[in-house]
Amino acid sequence: MENASTIQPIQPNSEQQESDSDMTFSLRQNKQQKALFGVIARIRESLDIETIFKITVTEVRQLLKTDRVSVFRFYPELGWEGEFIYEDVGAEWGSALAGKVDDHCFAAKFASLYQQGRIKAMADIYQASISDCHVQMLERFQVRANITAPLMKGKNLWGLLCLHQCSSSRQWEASEIEFVQLIAEHLGVALQQADYLEQVKLQSAQLAQAKAIEKAAVWQKSIAITIEKIRQFLDLESIFRTSTVELRQMLNADRVAIYRFNPDWSGEFVFESVAEGWFSLMEQQLHRPELKENVSECSAKDLAKPPVADTYLQDTEGGGFGRCEVYRVCNDIYSAGFSDCYIKTLEIYQARAYVIIAIYHGQTLWGLLAVYQNARSRDWEKDEVYFLIQVSTQLGVALQQAESLKEVQVQAQKLAKAAERERKAAQREKALAATVEKIRQSLDIDTIFATSTEEVRRLLEVDRVTIYRFRADWSGEFVAESLAPGWTSVKEIISAMSMMVTELALRQAQGNTCPEPTSFAQRDALSLPFAQRLVEKGFVEKGRSAGYAAADDYLQKNQVRDFANGQTLVIKDIYSTDYSIPYIALIERMEARAYMIVPIFQGEKLWGLLAAYQNIKLRDWQEDEINLLMQIGTQLGVGLQQAELLEQTQRQKEEITQNLKELQNTQSQLIQSEKMAGLGQLVAGIAHEINNPISFIYGNITYVTEYAENLLKLLRLYQKEYPKAIGEIENQAAALDLDFISDDLPKILTSMEMGADRISQLVLSLRTFSHLDEAGMKAVDLHEGIESTLLILQHRLQPETNSFAIEVVKQYGELPLVVCYAAQINQVFMNILNNAIDALQNSEKAGKIIDNPKIWIRTEVTEGNTILIWIANNGYEILEMMRSRIFEPFFTTKQPGQGTGLGLSISYQIIVEKHGGNIKCVSEPGNGCEFWIEIPMKRTVS
Fold this sequence. Notes:
The chain is an alpha+beta fold. The chain contains 25 helices and 24 strands. Strands 3-2-1-6-5-4 form a six-stranded antiparallel beta sheet. The protein has a six-stranded antiparallel beta sheet with strand order 14-13-12-17-16-15, sandwiched between helices.
């Protein structure tokens, strides 16, 4: 809507200028007339008002070189409100389409002028005498100058043809205004023609409808029968199958098919009934996907090489059917004026004639009901089309019914699922109580973890459940896992990642930062660039060996604080959540798609995480599932505290046991030390006391022997000089048996000398055994210690009765002097030899026949500068269960009252702890028992 403005004529300055202007004007006028006739011809070529308006606005803007040409339509019933419905506008200017204009002054000032056919032109809206609100309205559409011509439909003002100059003001020429006026008049004629054509179409439709009604009775029975058959079924498959079969038989067609649209307006044939001799479109579309695309008009694609996909419906969102067009009829594709490309497309479907009926689901175009005549053309009757429309309507109703049925079924399924969830929730509560009870029944943390992960995986029906423990630096490791069959354990995943990082480190050390794929990279899905990202992100530590460990830099920097505050992480789909690259990488390596993680607290401290993973598909975690995992996490925290208390108790128990054992060892050592000290002092005292008199005896026995020999010589001299003794001397000599004394006394003196010598050796052995004068370590001859021990035990080896003599077999090697505690080493020899003698004697008492009881003693220097003393006997063997405890304090294999159980325990401490050596017992059935004593040749003082 525009205000009136005057047109200023051009005033020439001279006759020459006027002549030149006339010539220029004449040429321009001829050109504009030619352009006008061209536009008018194109207007008359079409009967479609939309096409006419589109051509007009484009042609006029190009001819007059304006910024915008548009068609504005009035709605008089709304108080002359209107809107722009067509336009052609320069790219740099905004569109005025759908811009509604409500000018309250229009009816009073301009409506009557436009109804009279007045055309308005403004060179500059700011120079024209128009109201401010009118200027603002024009500014809204970026108008600076314009021409407005009325569009008259008969005697009624229908709209306006508007030319807008937006860039600057413009002095419109009279020829331009006249040109616009003529175009507007022809558009008015086109509006009348379109209106008349619409009336003719309406009348034709009414006439056709009347004839169809007359013939409808013939089809009503068929329609009723078909509809009744359709209504007998509730499932769409049966309904569509019955419909296509019944329609093809009743219409005697070659093919009846149902085509369903997809959301993007592509589609496919879903049901079909086809006569013999023609291929099935449903089978063909499986092998030729282009047949799924469309069944309507030709697309703009290159159709040089059929078969070609017809995407017209997809490109136009359903074509005319999407704009509530009910049906389309073609009696002969070759005489219907179709383009070659569309004919080629229809030939692909083997169609010669067809009727296509829209199937609406409510107000939405669902698909098409297509009836094809393939062998020949066919003049489709109105009754047939009406019949198909009725069937199509019933199919739409069936779709709604099926949808309602589906909704009911879905609702029933939801109710069933809700009931199932309630049932599972109850089961989970019961199972949770049982799981908590299982956790509380055990105090072993590994058992608790194994039970918890297994029960959680079973209760939540997930693929993986893990427990992750934090270290002091908030890195951590997986300590427990329950895994469904068919999945890779997290231990193997982390191991593979660590191996890849190690290989990457080796490659980088060699200066190769972008290595070619290796055999390892080919065997594993991990790539070296991926491993490099893990190292750069700090997710895997360089040099960490394969195992559960992973330094999760992402957890350290992003989520530890959240977990420490008691927050729970619930992920329904990892690909819809923003995470760092390495964290997503690990989750993908764990083959997880959804997961949830809850913290585990040990008291007030964040100990670790409990995680449940769903692989392959996403999962909408339910509230009760999250609560269950949280409760299990809480119970694990309680279990950790209990396990910690148990560990402390066990540690204290072990400490008490160790202290008790040490006290017992100390006690046994003190007892044995006191015993050995007392024994040593006793032996030393006895040796000293014996040594004094025996030294006196041993020192004077030579003189006694000499004196006795002299006396005997004197006696023999008397007998020689006085062979006849007096009676009293002779009687006394007979009474004393002087000859026997003379013969026996030298023997007695010799025996006394031998006995004194043996006593001297025994005293020396006792002093050697006790070594009381050698408190520290000293280099000694081990063979002397063994010999002194055997001498002391001689009374047990060779008893006076000689009833059970034990042979000692000595196999001494060449030993150097050994630095040791001599008295303690002799004590070891004493204990082992005593036990060997006891074993042989007990074997005889137990009834074992030993032909020649023996004790073997072998010494040698072994490799590694170690002295080996091997002491064996051929008595009873020692069983394995006893050998494992034979060096324990107070353990004995002897009968009650026959041993203290301290001998071998003390021997073990002397050899192992005091001398850094080794002692072991070897016994096999039938081979007696052996003791192996190993003493280092050079020993630091303990």
